[in-house]
Amino acid sequence: MRTVRLESETDLDGWRTHARALLFEGVQPAHAAFRTGTTTAGLFEEVAPPSPAPASLALTVPRAFMDLAAAVALHRSEDRFDLLYRLLWRLQQDRHLLNIVSDRDVADAMERAKNVSRASHKMKAFVRFRRIGDAGDERWIAWFEPAHRVLERTAPFFQRRFTTMRWTILTPDGTADWDGKHLTFGPPATKDQAPEGDDVEEFWKTYYASTFNPARLKTKMMQSEMPRRYWANLPEAALIPELVARAAVREEAMVRAPATPTNARLSRATAPVVERATTNEVVPTSLPALAAGVQGCRRCPLWRDATQAVCGRGPTQAPLMIVGEQPGDQEDLAGEPFVGPAGQVLDAALAEADLDRNAAWITNAVKHFKHEPRGKRRLHKTPDAGEVQACRWWLDAERALVKPRLIVTLGATAALGVLGRKIAVTKERGRPVRLDDGTAVLPTVHPSYLLRLPDAEMREAERARFIADLKAAKALLADAE
Ligand code: URA
User: Fold this and answer.
1) For residue 463, how far is its CA from the centre of ligand 1 (angstroms)?
2) What percent of the chain has pLDDT over 90?
3) 115 lines ligand 1 (CB under 6 A)
4) E strand or H helix at 151, and its extent?
5) Is the pTM of this model over 0.70?
6) How far apart are CA 321 and CA 317, in angstroms?
7) What is the CB-side half-sphere exposure of residue 470 using CA atoms within 13 A?
8) Which of 57, 140, 160, 345 has the fewest CB atoms within 10 Å around its CB?
9) How far apart are CA 195 and CA 181, in angstroms?
10) CA angle in degrees (0–180, nearest 5) for 250-211-458
């Protein structure tokens, strides 16, 4: 038996050199064995390098074989290089061997290449970075245990995705490090070298739990898409057992629940709308008067389907006013702004920007929840320009009473309500503009925009931009003091 020891687990170049030499010597696959650092040679195996093949020996293999070999070499099976040698040997007799997909060796190699490609795909989906260091000097570290040795193959994906971030991926096979300019690979790492969790993780878990729909649960599909082997390093995986355990009960409750009785709100919908001429025209002189007055507002039809008007909250004369779009489902029921999922994202971001939510006046451009019924759910609908314009009467009154030094607008509707004109939020975000009375206004995105982003990496990047905008607001407030 001729045994070759390769320099590393993924030493494809070494394999190629030795395989060529063995082929030249006529060593049959049954008499050749390739070993790597961790695989031991058998008791009677001879570990000796074959004599080098003459440089003139031209070995021609189809390009598809080299692509296949590059993937199979990353598979964790011990005999992967033996299989490749067998294929190489057989290719000398039949150049079209790879086209015979029913051939055992061909099928086996293709299956292993598929596993490797899947491991790379899962790595792209399940690497979760944790932040270390302060803003301006932050690094993102991830611990990941790929099913196969795909770190080097997959790292360029993260380089393209996170070009502006400094990140390191630690794995038991090695580490990949991107410093903003160079991608380098280092020795294997251990899990304890990676940070355990960070504040981004809480945000992500909140998002995950809030989007989990018990009625759509398909455990088998979920486990195939997110195999258990990755759970240990996924923050959201800690939630899965409980979400799954409660899913059946939650779903049953949804099915058993009696149809919602016709609600007073919906019956009111049939009532004729009282037109704006009859609405409150006396500008309120205090915030409690405003809160009471807005409950009777008939300036637009949105009052008919809402539980109540949701007025602003916070300390009178707060230096910072934060304006959202309109109350959501939970805010409509609670009578308070930003208490639902978007509120949680906002709270976490404010805390990161070192802004105290309780020191700000939090309100919305539109005070009634605009929605449409869908089964038992009420789906958010964006208020139209007329509704925003109608509600500006209240927002202006609120502004005149609170007298903030700075207003942060969240999303396009909030900006329209405060500025009275449409803006392109993504272009104008983070840059303050002045109202006629000199009040500074800083537009940024709405937190629910972050909740809607389907891609975890993009979500993290956008969240960082949102926090940067809030930090800019903090600096502006400090300047205006
Ligand atoms: N979205 C908003 O714009 N405002 C809220 O109060 C809640 C969600």
Assistant:
1) 17
2) 65
3) no
4) helix 151-161
5) no
6) 9
7) 27
8) 160
9) 23
10) 165
Ordered structural domains, the chain, with CATH: 2-121 (no CATH), 127-193 (no CATH), 201-256 (no CATH), 272-480 (3.40.470.10)
Higher pLDDT, 267 or 50: 50
- The reply to whether ligand 1 has any atom less than 6 angstroms from the CB of 341 is no
Q: Is 161:134 a contact under the CB 8 Å cutoff? A: no
394 lines ligand 1 (CB under 6 A): no
> Which mutation among 338, 344, 416 tests ligand 1's pocket best, with the greatest number of atoms within 8 A of CB?
338
Count the neighbouring beta carbons within 10 Å of the beta carbon of residue 178.
21
The CA 211 to ligand 1 mean position distance, Å, reads: 17
- 324 CB near ligand 1 (under 6 Å): yes
φ, ψ of residue 324 to 5 degrees: the values are: -95, -165
Would you state the structure tokens that stand for residue 404, as one six-digit string? 């903030």
To which residue do tokens 């929840």 refer? 369
The mean pLDDT value of the chain amounts to 87
CA of 30 to the centre of ligand 1 (A): 69
Distance 369 CA to ligand 1 centre (A): 9
Distance of CA 72 from the midpoint of ligand 1 (Å): 51
Ligand 1 centroid to residue 310 C-alpha, Å: 10
Which residues contact residue 32 at a Cβ distance below 8 angstroms, ignoring those fewer than 6 apart? 1, 2, 3, 4, 22, 82, 85
| Other Cβ atoms within 10 Å of 462 Cβ, number | 15
What is the side-by-side strand order in the sheet with 183-186? 130-132, 139-143, 167-171, 174-178, 183-186
Give residue 204's pLDDT.
Answer: 66
290 within 8 A of 367, measured Cβ to Cβ: no
Local structure of residue 37 (DSSP, 8 states): T
Residue 4 pLDDT > 90, yes or no?
Answer: yes
In 73-150, where does DSSP find H-type helix? Answer: 80-93, 104-126
pLDDT at 277: 39
459 three-class SS: helix
Q: Which atom of ligand 1 is nearest to the CA of 447?
A: 1
Q: Is the CB of 332 under 6 A from ligand 1?
A: no
Q: Are 401 and 315 in contact (CB under 8 A)?
A: no
Query: Which atom of ligand 1 has the smallest separation from the CA of 324?
Result: 3
With a 6 Å cutoff on the Cβ, whether 364 touches ligand 1 is yes
